[in-house]
Amino acid sequence: MESRNVRKSKKAIEDAMLSLIELKPYQSISVREILDKADVCRSTFYKHYKDIYDLIDTVELRFLDELKGECMKLMAYKSVEGKHPIIESVFRVVQNNDRLIRLLLGNNGDLAFIYKIENLLREICITVSAERQRRSTDDRQVLLYSSYVVSGAVGIYLQKMALDIDCGPDELGYLIGEMFVKAEKVFYS
Question: How much is the pLDDT for 81?
């Protein structure tokens, strides 16, 4: 268990990095800039992170773990008419991390982060779809369906973000959940 001081230092470092990403690409940020902004010493930074890339990875992995954890809690819940609990919870986690997502997926962030998100969601979708269809997780239709719906869902979210469309997690969950249901009929009929 981390001490309160360790958690506080890490949060200061991570917040400083995110504030700097608002101004310039993360690859251009120096450790010195983060230290100055976070008001921590160099040894504190290197006690927790190898470099800027490790810091970015740590922040991204924490988000991905939170997203996966939320989905795993809801795996047992099936979609019912107009309700899609897993999808809605994904968008709640995204909404709760809105600043982080916007910065990391923005022009100054880590563009590879979108692939990490897609891969995680595709893995979850494959598991859920294979179970629902009583097929193997390496079944061709399961893989194609999962790729299609995850790419579509991520694309919709990126467009929502780019155009600053006001759309909450329940509305997104409904729209994308219904897309999943309709696509399921096409892929598995």
Answer: 67
pLDDT at 76 over 90: no
The residues pairing with 83 across neighbouring beta strands, listed in sequence order, are 80
Q: Sorting pLDDT into bands at 50, 70 and 90, what band is 128?
A: confident
Separation in Å, CA 82 to CA 176, 177, 178, 181:
10, 8, 7, 10
Cβ atoms of residues 103 and 21 within 8 Å: yes
Token pair in block for residue 13: 């470092």
**3-class SS letters over the chain:** CCCHHHHHHHHHHHHHHHHHHCCCCHHHCCHHHHHHHHCCCHHHHHHHCCCHHHHHHHHHHHHHHHHHHHHHHCCCCCCECCECHHHHHHHHHHHHCHHHHHHHHCCCCCCCHHHHHHHHHHHHHHHHHHHHHCCCCCCHHHHHHHHHHHHHHHHHHHHHHHHCCCCCHHHHHHHHHHHHHHHHHHHHC
